[in-house]
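Moderator note: this is an archived Q&A kept for reference. The question asked for a predicted structure of one protein chain; the sequence and the answer are reproduced below.
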Amino acid sequence: MANSKEKLLEIDDLTWWYEDSPTLLYDDFNFDLYEKDFCFIVGKSGRWKTTLIRFLMGKLTPPKKMIFYKKEDIARYTDKERAIFKRKIWIVYQDFKLIEHKTVYENIAYPLKIVSIKPSKIKKRVNEILYQMDLMDKKDVQIPTLSGWEKQRVAISRALVTNPEFIIADEPTGNLDWENSQKIADYLIDLNNKGNTILLITHDMRLLDYVKEKTNIKIVNV
């Protein structure tokens, strides 16, 4: 039976290497990401995973006809098209990458402010996310006072606020203990159940097994 979900991302026979290394980083690599997928990319190669993110964020230009977003070759994007594409995805990092001198509310609101959304709409959307992520009581708190578990929830909230096409979670539990790693996994499962597309990059097989027991996932080994 054909997949009725829309294909968001397609990698077709990607081959890539760095000039400083004789080893192929990608050798005819193929991958599809559909809407509402919960996909794990697992493996020990940090450079492999970092390069994939750099391709998607426009920091590296991939070879032509190898990485497609909704059937469009991202290697052929103009600067304007690349900027629009980057707003369709959001990355949650292992080290959070929050703005330390801003409050929880201000961190979540920031992606909307930089694209000039009206203040009234920002307030409404941020409050929706704060409620959804159980952070309303932390909205005026400064980032340095939060625990790692709370910081990661803020990072996920900041990703959600723009309604991205899909979320890339790059080792999202790497700085957390197992108890809080499970909590973050549960949040991601819940978000996926609500229709969010999740691409989770990790080398943590324990995390993969935990999520696999609770929901359907796609696994890509690299």
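Archived answer notes: The CA atoms of residues 42 and 221 lie 5 Å apart.
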